[in-house]
């Protein structure tokens, strides 16, 4: 078996095409091995899981997604044993990167769970969500957000329950990070089919986003999140390493910036076109949020919040561009497609804050403002570029505000492609 998997690895490394039927057969066998053979050596588990992920990922040149169905119960039991077993103590650690590959396997394999698996998974995990037992509660949250499938046909009954239990734990970054990542992913996959169902949850979700940004109010200097990079230490019920490892695997951002980044994703996919029935409410609420944080982005008001707010602006523009680019491939009559008027309205909301952030005392905030301007220049050049070019011209010709010159040059470098693009 070991030699066969090594041969498969070399074959895949050479980019050879694998017939769909062969991929499916090998993937089914390897899935059973890594989820139903507890005595398998951890090094072999890591090797098999790594190659299984490659087989399960959609490969357009090999026929796309496999037409197979995977059982979720063995994978759930394996992850529970590896990460939450009573024998999992620092003296018996996991093989290096084994946990990473099992988390990645769960992310890929949940697309192959049987139809209706969401209800069964929820029924299995729900007993862990106990407010009186924190270890069980965190374990249930991790398993739920990791295993629950996301897709266009996913039900949204879970959203109301998540919102109701979100307030059980406060001032814990891992708790908020799991929920915001899950809801952002679920909204991205369901906004076209269940857009109207998200409207009722919109006020609570926007309130949680403001909570995550964690802005100071008045003279208080208390932060919601204390030590951002640490998880609660406990030997009972959940791993001895950070719970954020389940959702914060390959990103170089801190937990705070990753939460803000995913919050921006959620806000973008909550937006509905103004022409739809009940549409436009998301943009109006986004405008209120941006109006509330505008003074915090002023160059003279720097603080720990500056990087978070600049990350919010850049991430909003990034995900909005991703959504608009994908929707431009849809028919113009699609009810979930944002119109050009919606795009212009979004650009008008973000542009003043991005222009203001250009002259921040923080180099990171200036860079993120340039990223936002790059996306705005691509989405709505007629709105974003004229005022920016005027500001850049003033900065390059002034004799008394020479500190603006470097920011102006960075902004020009960010938007040069939209500027020189013909038409």
Structure overview:
The protein is mainly alpha-helical and 423 residues long. It contains 17 helices and no strands. The protein has helices spanning 2-13, 20-36, 42-56, 72-84, 98-109, 117-125, 134-147, 157-166, 173-194, 202-213, 255-270, 281-293, 305-327, 340-357, 363-379, 381-397, 404-420. Residues 233-241 have low confidence and may be disordered.
Fill in the keyword field for this structure.
423 residues, mainly alpha
Question: Helices and strands: which structural class?
Answer: mainly alpha
Sheet having the most strands: none
Portion in beta strands: under 5%
Rg over CA atoms, rounded to whole Å, is 24 Å
Distance between the termini: 59 Å
- Written as H for each helix and E for each strand, in order along the chain, the element string is HHHHHHHHHHHHHHHHH
What is the total tally of β strands? 0
Report the principal-axis shape: globular
Number of helices: 17
Topology:
Layout: H1 2-13, H2 20-36, H3 42-56, H4 72-84, H5 98-109, H6 117-125, H7 134-147, H8 157-166, H9 173-194, H10 202-213, H11 255-270, H12 281-293, H13 305-327, H14 340-357, H15 363-379, H16 381-397, H17 404-420
Helix pairs in contact: 1-3, 2-3, 2-4, 3-5, 4-5, 7-9, 9-11, 10-11, 10-12, 11-13, 13-14, 13-15, 14-15, 15-16, 15-17, 16-17
């Amino acid at each position: 078996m070991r030699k066969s998997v090594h041969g498969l690895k070399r074959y895949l490394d050479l980019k050879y095409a694998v017939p769909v039927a062969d991929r499916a057969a090998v993937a089914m066998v390897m899935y059973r091995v890594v989820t139903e053979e507890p005595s398998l050596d951890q090094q072999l588990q890591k090797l098999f899981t790594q190659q299984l992920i490659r087989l399960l990922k959609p490969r357009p040149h090999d026929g796309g997604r496999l037409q197979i169905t995977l059982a979720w119960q063995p994978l759930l039991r394996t992850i529970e044993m590896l990460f939450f077993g009573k024998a999992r103590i620092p003296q018996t650690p996991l093989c290096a990167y084994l946990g990473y590959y099992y988390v990645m396997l769960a992310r890929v394999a949940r697309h192959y769970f049987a139809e209706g698996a969401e209800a069964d998974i929820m029924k299995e995990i729900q007993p862990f969500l106990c407010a009186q037992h924190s270890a069980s509660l965190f374990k249930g949250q991790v398993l739920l957000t990791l295993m629950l499938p996301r897709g266009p046909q996913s039900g949204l009954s879970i959203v109301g329950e998540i919102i109701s239990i979100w307030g059980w734990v406060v001032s814990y970054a891992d708790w908020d990070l799991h929920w915001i990542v899950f809801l952002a992913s679920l909204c991205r996959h369901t906004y076209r089919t269940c857009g109207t169902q998200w409207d009722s949850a919109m006020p609570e979700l926007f309130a949680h986003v403001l909570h995550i940004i964690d802005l100071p109010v008045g003279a208080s200097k208390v932060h919601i999140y204390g030590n951002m990079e640490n998880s609660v230490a406990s030997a009972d019920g959940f791993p001895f390493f950070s719970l954020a490892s389940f959702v914060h695997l390959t990103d170089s951002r801190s937990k705070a910036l990753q939460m803000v980044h995913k919050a921006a994703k959620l806000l973008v996919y909550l937006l509905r076109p103004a022409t739809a029935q009940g549409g436009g409410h998301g943009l109006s609420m986004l405008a209120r949020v941006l109006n509330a944080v505008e003074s915090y982005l002023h160059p003279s008001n720097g603080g720990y919040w500056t990087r978070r707010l600049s990350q919010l602006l850049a991430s909003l523009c990034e995900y909005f561009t991703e959504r608009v680019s994908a929707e431009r491939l849809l028919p113009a009559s699609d009810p979930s497609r944002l119109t050009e008027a919606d795009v212009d309205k979004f650009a008008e909301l973000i542009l003043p804050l991005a222009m203001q952030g250009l002259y921040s005392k923080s180099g990171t905030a200036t860079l993120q403002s340039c990223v936002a301007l790059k996306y705005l220049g691509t989405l709505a050049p007629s709105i974003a570029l004229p005022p920016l070019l005027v500001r850049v011209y003033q900065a390059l010709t002034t004799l008394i505000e020479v500190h603006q010159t470097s920011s102006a040059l960075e902004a020009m470098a960010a938007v040069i492609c939209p500027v020189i693009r013909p038409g």
